[in-house]
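subagent[fold] <- orchestrator: predict structure for attached chain, return tokens only, no commentary.
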Amino acid sequence: MIKPAGNTVFWAAFKYSIPVLLGYFAIGTAFGLLMSDAGYPWWLSLAMSLFMFAGAGQFMALGLFAAGTGIWEAALVQLVLNARHIAYGFSMLKKFSNTGLLKYYLIFGMTDETFALLSSLNDEESAERKKFMVTVTALDHLYWTSGTLTGAFIGSIIPFNTDGIGYALTALFVVLLVEQILRVRRPAVFIVSAVIAVLAVFILPARISLLAAIVLALGISSFFSRHEQGELS
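subagent[fold] -> orchestrator:
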């Protein structure tokens, strides 16, 4: 992990978040193109990225818009899709403690990719680490919003074939997974999580498979972590 110090916090956070920059700008551009192709104005793409900032949730919302889904049904679908953040949130309680009002922005900005970056930080409490977490979160927000605005602008002036472009988000998840494997170097956690995810898809109903897989994977990973700490102590 990059350790920030003094006025180098911004640059340390920027270097640390480069993988997300490369993914978010490209995928944000894809989202902006899809919104433009669906006939929505550029400012709606920008507003969604500024105030919703949900990645997969925004792609889902676009499909819900197109299907004419009602507000309560759309809200329920988004709740199910983003329920995984409940599990993320519990695991970040210690890291976000003593951050004052900035905690609310950290909670708002905790996307899958930002969680992947911040969860790798140690738990030491310091002003520098707080600034680092907020800067990483703000940069990721900026990357996504800039990409969205770029895509919406390009789509409004240039005809663009958007077939297959929705798979860009899946590609980013794969890249971040590889980054985490290389950084953490604890293959058992990833193998167990992958096995649980596959089993959940085939055994459980689709509406609960994702959340169940996340909860089980976090529980078993926590067990492995305590076991390893016990061996080291």
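orchestrator: received. Logging for downstream: The chain has a mean pLDDT of 81. The chain has 13 helices and no strands.
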